[in-house]
Design brief:
This protein is an alpha/beta fold. The chain is about 45% helix and about 10% strand. Strands 2-1-3-4-5 form a five-stranded parallel β-sheet, with helices on both faces. The N and C termini lie far apart (about 60 Å). The relative contact order is 0.10.
Amino acid sequence: MEESTAPGKDSPVPIRVLLVDDQPLLRTGFRMILEAERDIAVVGEAGDGVQALDQVRALQPDVVLMDIRMPRMDGVEATRRITGPAKDGPVKVLVLTTFDLDEYVVEALRAGASGFLLKDAPAAELVQAIRVVGAGEAMLAPSITRRLLDKYAGRLPTGEESLPDSLATLTEREVEVLKLVARGLSNAEIAADLFVSETTVKTHVGHVLTKLELRDRVQAAVYAYESGLVRPGS
């Protein structure tokens, strides 16, 4: 008996993806990889940031796979407009970069990107990244979080400045968790470090994000460094 292709309780709701890159060949490659997955649907393409904004409004994707360096409007500005206060829906942006220490990546994360991925990443890693970001999580390898922030330490606080008042809203344990998030630890690693359950850590992380009005762990990590709570290289 043939397997039904009609939507049912066992059929995953596909993650709607918009591909944004000024190189058509790369977009074609990404499309072929992603469309082979049952739970991912490529709903459109754009060749620059301006087209991306139009396509986001028209197609309402869940995830935008965003190149950084493009004509007319780069990926950083497009990300800022897509994820900013005036956004129409909870669209997530996964930034693509050629170099793992591209200077624009930090700006893209500040602009609201949920993470970034190298263009030469294996197909399986691309697929997993789309799924992670589509589920509302941040996609940024812990080692790369540290490397990025360490590399641009000169643009971040030295630690001599006074800490922002917003940190006073956090409990002592929440501050502890924020520091560990900033250092790139996963929930499981934080749980082991603090001798608590992963569920407890997840709750603390949620409280941190809510109190500081941050979108995800990536923004929490950047906040911790920018506020001076964690110093680059520490």
